[in-house]
Structure to design on (183 residues):
C-alpha cells in the first residue's frame, strides 16, 4: 500500500510540475508577443500588405509607365517579403496582420482619389517618404533584434527597400524608371 501511495504521489507531483511548466510556457509566449521583435514583425507584415495594395493602385492609376512598373515591382517584392515575414512570425508565435493600419489606409484612400500627373507625383513622394522611414526601422531592427532570425529578416530586406527608395526618388525627379532595371 505504501508503494501505491508513493507512486500515486509521484504521479500527482509530475502532473503538477508539467501543468506549472505549461503555464510558464504560455506566459513566455504572451510576453514574446509584446516584445520589440514581435512588434517589428507585426509592423513589417502590415507594411508589406500596404505596399502590395499601393503597388496595385499604381498599376491601375499610374499615368507614366515608370509609375506602373514601379507598382508592379512593389507588388512582387512585397509579396515575397510578406511571405517570409509571415512564416517567421508564425514560427515565433506572432500573428501577422492581414490588413494595413488605419494610417496606411488613409494614405491609400487619398492617393486613390487622384489621377494623372497629380497621382504620379503624390505616389512618388509618398513612396520616397515611406521607404526612408522603413529603411530606418529595418536598419535599427537589424542591429538591435534580440532574435537572430528577426535581425536576419531585417538585414535581408534592406537591399530591396533601398532599391525601392532609389526608384521612387528617380520617379520623383522625373525619371521614368523601367521594371526591367529591377533584379
Amino acid at each position: 500500500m505504501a508503494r501505491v501511495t508513493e507512486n500515486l504521489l509521484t504521479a500527482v507531483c509530475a502532473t503538477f510540475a508539467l501543468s506549472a511548466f505549461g503555464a510558464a510556457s504560455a506566459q513566455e509566449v504572451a510576453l514574446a508577443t509584446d516584445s520589440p521583435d514581435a512588434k517589428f514583425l507585426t509592423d513589417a507584415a502590415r507594411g508589406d500588405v500596404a505596399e502590395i495594395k499601393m503597388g496595385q493602385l499604381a498599376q491601375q492609376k499610374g499615368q507614366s509607365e515608370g509609375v506602373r512598373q514601379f507598382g508592379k515591382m512593389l507588388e512582387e517584392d512585397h509579396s515575397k517579403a510578406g511571405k517570409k515575414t509571415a512564416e517567421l512570425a508564425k514560427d515565433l508565435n506572432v500573428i501577422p496582420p492581414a490588413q494595413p493600419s488605419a494610417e496606411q489606409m488613409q494614405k491609400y484612400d487619398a492617393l486613390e482619389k487622384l489621377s494623372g500627373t497629380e497621382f504620379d507625383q503624390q505616389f512618388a513622394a509618398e513612396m520616397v517618404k515611406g521607404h526612408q522611414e522603413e529603411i530606418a526601422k529595418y536598419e535599427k531592427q537589424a542591429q538591435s533584434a534580440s532574435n537572430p532570425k528577426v535581425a536576419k529578416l531585417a538585414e535581408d530586406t534592406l537591399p530591396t527597400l533601398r532599391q525601392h527608395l532609389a526608384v521612387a526618388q528617380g520617379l520623383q525627379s522625373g525619371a521614368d524608371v523601367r521594371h526591367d532595371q529591377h533584379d
